[in-house]
Design a protein that fits this description.
The chain is an alpha+beta fold. It has one domain (about 30-100, about 105-135): Sandwich (Immunoglobulin-like). The protein has one helix spanning about 5-25; strands at about 30-40, 50-55, 65, 70-75, 85, 85-95, 120-125, 130-135. A hairpin with a 5-residue loop joins strand 3 (about 65) and strand 4.
Length: about 140
Amino acid sequence: MKSTPSLSFILLVVLATLLPGVAGCGGSKRASVHGKVTFPDGTPLTSGMVLFLPLDRENTLSPRGYLESDGSFDMVTSQPKDGAPVGKYKVAVQPRPPAPGSGAPAAAAFDARYSDFETSGLVFEVKPGQNDLPVKVTKPG
């Protein structure tokens, strides 16, 4: 005689399969974040990166966005253009690192205070959906 699995057994198998994926997703919903880094006169910062430091201690991800030649960027957490987890962040802008082996320090075309999360004065909240982050920096000195 052939036995058929009970409905409760089938539900248990389905839940055991689905729950690990659902549990891993809580709190890490990502949203699209793009923007542009410019000086007050509108000219773009053409190299470097934008960094996010989460203010929510439960969020351990620190997204970043690499600047294009027009100053634009798309935030990346683990894959290109995958955005950033929803939440509040301190924001810093880092200069492009020097070429490997050059021994030269990274030269910033902008005021160094923007390179530090504590002194940049930049805070941004990522909300569900599309997010636009215009960043204004000033020149050094």
